[in-house]
Write a structure and sequence with these properties.
Blueprint lengths: L1 H43 L7 H17 L2 H9 L8 H39 L4 H13 L2 H28 L3 H27 L5
Helix pairs in contact: 1-4, 1-5, 1-6, 2-3, 4-6, 6-7
Length: 208
């Protein structure tokens, strides 16, 4: 048991150190990314609400109708009737960006949770002298897949980034044709490089 515990201690010390470093980097990126996403969401969520200017025009048209009681007043009201249903592009953009923000925040929360688990494991096992008890503690860490959860967190953040980029392409197309072509080209290039790295890492065993 002593030899097994010795190997496990060396393994957990090295794995916990690298895992904590990765989680710290993820927390920094998730924090900055969430701040940027929030700035975009603050501007775009307004597109899901009725235009206050259109409501003002409708009220003025109703006043004009009451004053004139003419057919032209009815035409004005029909022409300026505000729609409570946002256009499909605005809905897609907000859905993608809010989903991206949620993925980023959930990833940050899970990073904090995993760091707490690892710190608690280090504190508890620091005073453990019995080899069997240490192996039991290690089995608890492994049975709850703490290290596997930590490995999944970067993928969640990449999903968040992908959702943001897709929404950004939709947003660019709603602004300007030239800007949209530039943004789409850059995003497509990034997706191509990312997929290439995944494929090459699967096919080539020596690929990092």
């Amino acid at each position: 048991w002593a030899e097994i515990a010795s190997h496990l201690k060396a393994f957990n010390a090295q794995r916990s150190y690298h895992c904590n470093e990765d989680l710290d980097n993820l927390l920094v990126f998730a924090g900055l990314f969430s701040a940027i996403l929030t700035a975009f969401n603050i501007e775009t969520y307004k597109q899901l609400q009725p235009d206050p200017n259109a409501v003002t025009v409708l009220l003025l048209a109703q006043i004009a109708k009451q004053m004139n009681s003419s057919l032209a007043g009815n035409d004005i009201i029909g022409a300026f009737q505000p729609s409570s249903i946002p256009d499909s592009t605005s809905t897609r953009i907000n859905a993608l960006w809010f989903a991206s923000l949620l993925f980023s925040l959930i990833t940050a929360a899970l990073c904090i949770l995993v760091k707490q688990w690892l710190r608690q494991f280090a504190v508890v096992t620091a005073s453990v002298q019995d080899s069997k008890e240490y192996c039991y503690r290690h089995w608890g860490l492994a049975s709850y897949h703490v290290y596997h959860i930590a490995d999944v967190l970067p993928m969640m953040l990449q999903v968040s980034l992908a959702l943001f980029l897709v929404g950004f392409v939709y947003f660019a197309w709603s602004l300007n044709h030239t800007v949209a072509i530039t943004a789409t080209t850059i995003v497509a290039l990034w997706f191509a490089i990312y997929l290439f790295t995944i494929v090459i890492s699967i096919k080539d065993a020596v690929c990092p």
